[in-house]
Amino acid sequence: MAGREKKRSGGEGAGSGAVMKKVLLVSGSPRPRGNTVQVLERCAEVIRRSGVGAEVVSLAGKRILACTACRRCAELKRCVLRDDFAPILERVRRADGFIVGAPVYFGTARGDVMNLLQRIGMVNRSGDRFLAGKVGGPIAIARRGSHTATIQEMLMFFLISDMVVAGSTYWNMVFGREPGEALKDREGMETVLHFAENVARLVKRL
After folding, report:
1. Minimal CA–CA distance to 138: which of 161, 129, 128?
2. pLDDT at 169 over 70
3. Which of 14, 42, 144, 157 is the most buried (most CB within 10 A)?
4. Ordered structural domains, the chain, with CATH
5. What gap in Å lies between CA 124 and CA 137, rounded to an integer?
6. pLDDT by residue (tens digit) across 44-69?
């Protein structure tokens, strides 16, 4: 924790030598320009306007294998599976906030999203517990239903990882099917953008 406290010592109104805090947003959709990434990009804009850095990473075109519970990460402090996981893990380590957006597949979060979260969680619990104190939460995007079940599924990762989950005026769920439709869900977008604003506010204060 000492390293993180040093990084965060600047706080709001810090001098020019302070390191800007940052939120990582991961889009779990296989569509590079689908609703999920578009929603997260809008959230990133809100976070940046709040004075916090934001980076959106898409899982589109990436291969994220499922955890095999080999527990080698306890010894090596990294995952031994060879895919596109490691660069994302390092981005999560460096970030002060972590937001995950997922499309709903058959009532739950897409498999790659849970593969990612479970492996990040395993490395975290087997090592230095770098997720503790980070701010964030999940967002679910779907055509019609099962948003809350998907949010609850992803939320388990944030809570067991000792993270701070930001709230909003409703649950973080947006409706839409074809690319761009989700942005037309006025209430849903107002909810997730307020959530993003709260994440930025907490990142600056903690």
Report:
1. 161
2. yes
3. 157
4. 21-205 (3.40.50.360)
5. 17
6. 999 999 999 999 999 999 999 999 99
